[in-house]
Write a structure and sequence with these properties.
It is elongated, with a radius of gyration of 23 Å. It has a five-stranded antiparallel β-sheet. 39% of the residues lie in helices and 15% in strands. It contains eleven helices and five strands. A hairpin with a 5-residue loop joins strand 1 and strand 2.
Length: 336
């Protein structure tokens, strides 16, 4: 980067049309081509509060470095001009780029300011989750859950819930899991009393245990990278639900009080809660508890996606820009 000094401005505070330096994380790099075959990379840089795109053309000065050197999940110092496109949203025109160095800390580089994280302190979320487990679960279910969580406590407090779709940020797994646990606890209690003649009755311990552990496979699906966890080889080959079942069975060996039938039913919830094969479900829900978990998980994931879309959109007009994950725009201008 050139030696002449420019103001260092947080990416999320860049004014339109002004040349400035900023720090950013390369969140995504995708090789594409136009209809007439011209190759380009679509890059997405971000900090904690803003995500911008940058197009790197094959005949431009940055193409070779982008293709061979730039890495997703690494941080860079950028010299850019920021703009907001009517159709494509926040954009940057790149004038210079280099990887951050230790010396950049003196100019304000702070990795935590580039990483999106839960709105809530992870210590608070973890405390609430463990309190809910202690209050509402009974042994041997509680023993099993404690066995699994204690083995991965540190990683679980910073994992995203998913790579790109819902809760895709530090602490996302924890925030999503706690929210799903609250929902299934309420739903299971409600239907337990609403259908008192159902035999066997709704198993509240079973569904809450599954809620805690339904995405525990993320600890093996994602690597240990803090900036942007990448899928591991087992994660790509097997997926989170299969890895979750394996982890649960390993922990169950230390809980002999857990019966084979209890473990079988828990397996069913873990393998069926996604409900649809195209979402990764191995089996359709066949017991009421699996239905409760499916709808609680699906509702919570989609509500978080709606929240992010509605609170971050800068599109003029009554509707948001089309959300690529939801596949639709959302109405944002309402009076009630």
């Amino acid at each position: 980067m050139a030696s002449n000094r420019l103001p260092i401005v947080p990416l999320h505070a860049l004014p339109v049309g002004q040349l400035a330096d900023c720090f950013a994380l390369l969140a995504e790099k995708s090789r594409q081509a136009t209809r007439d075959g011209k190759v380009f990379y679509s890059c997405r840089f971000r900090d904690k509060l803003r995500s911008v795109t940058c197009t790197i053309w094959s005949d431009g000065p940055w193409f070779e470095a982008c293709e061979r050197v730039w890495k997703e999940g690494e941080c860079y110092k950028l010299r850019v001009i920021y703009s907001e496109h009517d159709r494509f949203g926040p954009q940057i025109e790149l004038h210079n780029i280099r990887p951050v160095t230790e010396a950049d800390r003196a100019d304000g580089f702070d990795l935590t300011q580039l990483l999106e994280s839960s709105r809530f302190p992870v210590e608070q979320l973890w405390s609430e989750l463990t309190q809910l487990i202690d209050k509402r679960l009974h042994d041997p279910w509680r023993q099993l859950v404690r066995q699994v969580l204690s083995a991965y406590e540190t990683k679980l407090q910073r994992l995203p819930a998913s790579e790109k779709h819902y809760y895709p940020f530090l602490g996302g797994w924890l925030e999503h899991t706690l929210s799903v646990c609250r929902l299934v606890s309420w739903l299971a209690e409600y239907y337990y009393h609403y259908y008192p003649d159902l035999q066997p009755p709704i198993n509240r311990d079973l569904v809450l245990t599954a809620a805690v552990l339904h995405e525990i496979g993320r600890v093996l699906e994602f690597g240990d990278e803090l900036a942007q966890p990448q899928p591991t080889i087992p994660g790509r080959l097997l997926g989170a639900t299969t890895l979750a079942r394996d982890l649960i069975h390993q922990a169950a060996q230390q809980v002999p009080e857990l019966s084979p039938e209890q473990l079988l039913l828990l397996d069913h919830l873990i393998l069926s809660y996604l409900a649809l094969p195209e979402w990764g479900s191995i089996r359709l829900p066949m017991i009421p508890e699996a239905l409760i978990l499916h709808h609680a998980d699906d509702l919570d994931a989609k509500m978080e996606m709606y929240y992010r879309c509605l609170t971050r959109d800068t599109n003029p007009g009554a509707f948001t820009a089309r959300d690529p994950i939801l596949g639709r725009p959302l109405l944002k201008q309402r009076t009630c």
